[in-house]
Amino acid sequence: MIIDRSSEEPFVPPPYPYDRLTPMKEMAAAHEGGAIDLSIGSPFDAPPASVVAALAQSDTERGYPPSNGTPAFREAAANWLNRIAGTTISGADVGATIGSKEVVANMPHWLRLRRPDLDTVLFPAVSYPSYAMGARLAGCRAVPVPMDENWRIDLSAIDPADAKRALCLWVNTPGNPAGGIDDLAAAAAWGRANDVPVISDECYIEFTWNGPARSILTEGNDGLLAIHSLSKRSNLAGVRAGFYAGDADLVFYLQELRKHGGFLPPGPVQAAAVAAFDEQTHVDVQREVYRARLERMCGILAKIGVDTPMPEGGFYLWAPAPDGDAWGLTERLAREAGAIVAPGDFYGEGGAGYVRIALVQPDDKMDLIESRLS
Predict the structure, then answer these.
(1) How many whole angstroms separate alpha carbon 215 and alpha carbon 203?
(2) Which of 76, 107, 132, 131 is nearest to 257 (CA)?
(3) Which of 21, 49, 61, 303 gets the most CB atoms within 10 Å of its CB?
(4) In this structure, are residues 76 and 278 in contact, taking their beta carbons and an 8 Å threshold?
(5) Which residues contact 100 (CB under 8 A, 6 or more apart)?
């Protein structure tokens, strides 16, 4: 469904998706040991001690931090992406962010300031809700792009008329919620052929299970932007640290605009981010933790008749609901297991027959789920 917010009607915020789970939370909380929240990808595991120490000892609290990122932050971010994905960016190609959600939600507004003649945001039909909401907040048309049977964006399904009006095309690899891996080379080629910036949300890049980590910037920078975050990689969602990188003209525009908007990643956060980007061992350990949890939950679900494939990437299971009744499966898991999960319609109409399960809780919580269901 295309959502057009270009009229003059006042915008009324819809209910926040996860607020709709309140009855499930109450049901799950009735279990001895309480509710187990698997609905949101909020990390539970500890961040590295060296990163926490850098956060506390940066001595950057008094002065205003640079909006675009300190030279150390930008170089560390560039070096990290080059190391894990084979890109060739430099610190000059990078701008710091306050996490990644603020960038996703605000990007259509900023792009429309740059190109007021365009009004359309293209995004995967089953995806992170902020792609569509960002378009609505900017008064743009939010146009979902169909996905194939492997939950990959189908570029051939984009209407040429929508492409001509497009401010950007969002891609997300590994994908949230379904864990698909897009053909990023094809997305880059489509964007260049249609003169549409392609913005690749890559916040789960180091939890890629099908092949190596992938970034769209391996295709070069022109017309492309990659968004990254330390929230998932380093269990730092509460710190809010991320960056954008890519096309020189677009990066410069965003850097200048964000200065005026007062988007200032705190100095201690930038210092902690440098430490996190420079340290790889904690991520390697976390990868194995998430892989084990995913495999274990697949087994638990199979025992109650919900056969769920491993994702190609990310730390979510995209579980097909029996008879396509996602809210029914959501209620069953809350009632029987005390587990709160997210119905797939939170991520688009095409997700209505699935639930998303975030494997962020520790082993003792997994033990509780398994014992309750058995």
Answers:
(1) 10
(2) 107
(3) 21
(4) yes
(5) 201, 203, 227, 228, 229, 231, 242
Pair of tokens at residue 119:
């009004």
SS3 204: coil
Give the contacts of 125 (CB within 8 A, at least 6 positions apart): 144, 145, 146, 147, 348, 349, 350
Q: Residue 122's beta-bridge partner residues?
A: 143, 169
Other CB atoms within a 10 A radius of the CB of residue 211 amount to 9
Residue with tokens 């033990």: 367
Q: Is domain 49-277 annotated with CATH 3.30.470.30? A: no
pTM higher than the cut 0.85: yes
Q: Is the pLDDT of residue 117 over 70?
A: yes
Give one word for 42, left, alpha or beta, with left for phi > 0 and alpha for psi -120 to 50.
beta
Average confidence (pLDDT) over 272-296: 98
The residue to which tokens 């005026």 are assigned: 260
- The CATH class of the 18-46+281-373 domain is alpha beta
Q: Domains of the chain: which residue ranges? A: 18-46+281-373, 49-277
**Distance of alpha carbon 213 from alpha carbon 177, whole angstroms:** 18
List helix spans (H) across the chain.
22-29, 49-56, 71-85, 101-114, 129-137, 160-164, 184-194, 230-233, 248-261, 267-277, 281-302, 326-332, 363-373
Whether residue 169 contacts residue 197, with contact meaning beta carbons closer than 8 Å, is answered with yes
**Three-state secondary-structure class, residue 354:** strand
Q: What does the pLDDT look like over 352-372, one tens digit per residue?
A: 999 999 999 999 999 999 999
How far from each other are the two terminal CA atoms of the chain, in whole angstroms? 40
Rounded to whole angstroms, how far apart are CA atoms 308 and 351?
Answer: 14
d(CA 273, CA 48): 11
Distance CA 306, CA 168 (A): 37
